[in-house]
């Protein structure tokens, strides 16, 4: 493995800026790593080698002319295939979009390019971001680099596996109910779900419009803050975008790395632990809480009584929104078209196309959502779920009146074996028990590695009030520093090479 692919994004950027490596050399090293490992990991759906090298050469040429470049110029990135990218296949892990090459960039894609970041390609995912294991992809499952027989999480498992396998120093994921944080936890990465509206949704292929958020998957907290600052901020093209500057995320990460949390008030959420949580996960979480205390934080237990209803509320709200969003895939404007023989009518062609183009999990959620929105059931199901969402937001508000951040395990278990939950939707959905409340409330949350259980990573989730993303980064960086000091090396350094 090349020494260049072992470096985190901030270190790579420094090497490129100092002239110790060119952007082309860095891109080639990562493309070689993908070629050597992705037959086993299957992190990528499309590798854009020519585009990556062209972008890297442009960075080197601009630097040779003395132009001022961004702090991440020349650093390679893995992009989740739910983010529309001009000229590149953008499938959202679904057959119904096979071969579609968008004529425009999502705001996230455009900002990545504007920052001089080199996009290596598009990564695998659960179809339309519906899943917790990346087994629902129409193009085959992704494997966890820590143990190829296990899942890399989902729905952003392609991006998490790419970063954990050293195929890219960082990646973009999206988080609707935990799809950045849960993959980060089970692959030993840092994953941040921004405050809803903090990163533009324009050009994200929509699953659930009131929940979807793009964010970073990285090997360090500083890298996550750097990437978040590059893609975040107000976007007039997104009506839900927050019209306010981002907090100073990079400053917060660097401040937190000094590992002093004196005066910080931390709340342990009572409802996010206990029955159904693996002993090794609870032990890793307890060890992380001990570290927080040692860093000067005051730790207390808090109760958020309605968090236990987050899962049923989410699985009414998100499917309802997806049943509306996925109606656009009608076999008329773009994408797959089945049965168009000049004889069949539009409705039959549409039905045949959706039958062939959507996978089982997508169909399950569309049917569930359509039922919840139907006449006579709307108030009983979707309306009630939205009321529960309000109660969860109030739980957060009450807890944050007494605490600066809340903490919990990120996931109830470590990475589970491939195939173990594919026939048990409720067991699959339970992977997101800890991450769902922050998604429903729109508050920021980050997962940071805090230890190992039977040789597999455990994540600590840190939640903060809306628009206090910097608080997540500060605390996560302090934990990262303390864990590395305790274990003698970063968690990811324990990962066996793929």
What would you report as the Rg, rounded to the nearest angstrom?
Answer: 21 Å
- Globally, the shape reads globular
Give the H and E element order: HHHEHEHEHEHEEHHEHEHHHHEHHEEH
Under CATH, the topology is which?
Amidase signature (AS) enzymes
CATH A-level architecture = Alpha-Beta Complex
The CATH superfamily is identified as Amidase signature (AS) domain
Integer tally of domains: 1
Taken as a percent bin, the fraction of beta residues is: 5-15%
Question: Oligomeric form of this entry?
Answer: single chain
**Uncertain ranges:** none
Determine the fraction of residues in helical runs and give it as a percent range: 40-55%
State the strand order across the main sheet: 1-3-2-4-6-5-10-11-9-7-8
Count of extended strands: 11
Structural class: alpha/beta
Mean pLDDT: 96
What is the tally of helical segments? Answer: 17
Instruction: Identify the CATH class.
Output: Alpha Beta
Brief descriptors of the model:
single chain; 498 residues; alpha/beta; Amidase signature (AS) enzymes; eleven-stranded mixed beta sheet; 17 helices
Write up this protein:
By secondary structure, the chain is an alpha/beta fold. The chain has a single domain (3-304, 395-494), classed as Amidase signature (AS) domain (Amidase signature (AS) enzymes), CATH 3.90.1300.10. Helix content is 41%, strand content 13%. The chain is built from 17 helices and eleven strands. The protein has helices spanning 3-6, 9-18, 23-41, 49-64, 107-114, 157-164, 181-187, 221-231, 249-256, 279-294, 310-325, 346-357, 360-373, 379-402, 425-429, 436-441, 469-487; strands spanning 44-47, 76-80, 118-123, 170-175, 190-193, 213-218, 265-269, 298-302, 405-409, 445-453, 456-463. Strands 1-3-2-4-6-5-10-11-9-7-8 form an eleven-stranded mixed β-sheet, sandwiched between helices. Strand 7, helix 10 and strand 8 form a beta-alpha-beta unit. Helix 3 (23-41) packs antiparallel against helix 4 and helix 11 (310-325) packs across helix 13. It is globular and about 70 Å long. The model has no long low-confidence stretch (mean pLDDT 96).
């Amino acid at each position: 493995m090349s020494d260049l692919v072992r470096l985190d994004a901030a270190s790579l950027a420094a090497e490129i800026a100092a002239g110790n490596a060119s952007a082309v050399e860095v891109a080639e090293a990562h493309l070689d790593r993908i070629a050597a490992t992705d037959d086993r990991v299957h992190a990528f759906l499309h590798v854009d080698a020519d585009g990556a090298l062209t972008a890297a050469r442009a960075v080197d040429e601009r630097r040779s002319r003395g132009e001022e470049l961004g702090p991440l110029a020349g650093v390679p990135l893995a992009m989740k295939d739910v983010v529309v990218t001009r000229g590149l296949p953008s499938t959202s892990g679904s057959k119904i979009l096979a071969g579609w090459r968008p004529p425009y960039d999502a705001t996230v894609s455009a900002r990545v390019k504007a920052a001089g970041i080199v996009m290596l390609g598009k990564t695998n995912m659960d179809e339309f971001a519906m899943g917790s294991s990346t087994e629902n992809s129409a193009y085959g499952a992704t494997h966890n680099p820590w143990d190829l027989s296990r899942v890399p999480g989902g729905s952003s498992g392609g991006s998490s596996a790419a970063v954990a396998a050293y195929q890219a120093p960082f990646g973009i994921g999206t988080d609707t109910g935990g799809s950045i944080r849960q993959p980060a936890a089970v692959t030993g990465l840092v994953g941040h779900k921004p405050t809803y509206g903090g990163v533009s949704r324009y050009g994200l292929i929509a699953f659930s419009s009131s929940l979807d958020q793009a964010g970073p998957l990285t090997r360090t907290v500083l890298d996550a803050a750097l990437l978040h600052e590059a893609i975040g901020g107000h976007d007039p093209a997104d009506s839900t975008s927050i019209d306010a500057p981002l907090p100073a995320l990079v400053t917060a990460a660097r401040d937190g790395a000094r590992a002093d949390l004196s005066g910080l008030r931390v709340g342990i959420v009572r409802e996010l632990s206990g029955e159904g949580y693996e002993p090794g996960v609870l032990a890793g979480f307890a060890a992380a809480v001990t570290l927080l205390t040692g860093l000067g934080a005051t730790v207390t237990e808090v109760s958020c009584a309605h968090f236990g209803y987050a899962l049923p509320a989410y699985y009414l709200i998100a499917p309802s929104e997806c049943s509306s969003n996925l109606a656009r895939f009608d076999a008329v404007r773009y994408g797959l078209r089945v049965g168009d023989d000049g004889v069949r009518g539009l409705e039959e062609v549409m039905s045949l196309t959706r039958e062939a183009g959507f996978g089982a999990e997508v169909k399950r959620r569309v049917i569930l959502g359509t039922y919840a929105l139907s006449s006579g059931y709307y108030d009983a199901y979707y309306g009630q779920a939205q009321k529960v969402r309000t109660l969860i937001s109030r739980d957060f508000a009450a807890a944050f009146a007494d605490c600066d951040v809340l903490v919990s395990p990120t996931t109830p278990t470590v990475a589970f074996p491939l195939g173990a939950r594919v026939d048990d939707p409720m067991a699959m959905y339970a992977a997101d028990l800890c991450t769902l409340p922050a998604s429903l409330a729109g508050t920021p949350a980050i997962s940071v590695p805090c230890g190992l259980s039977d040789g597999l990573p455990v994540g600590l989730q840190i939640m903060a009030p809306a628009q206090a993303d910097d608080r997540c980064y500060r605390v996560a960086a302090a934990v990262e520093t303390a864990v590395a000091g305790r274990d003698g090396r970063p968690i990811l350094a324990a990962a066996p090479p793929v």
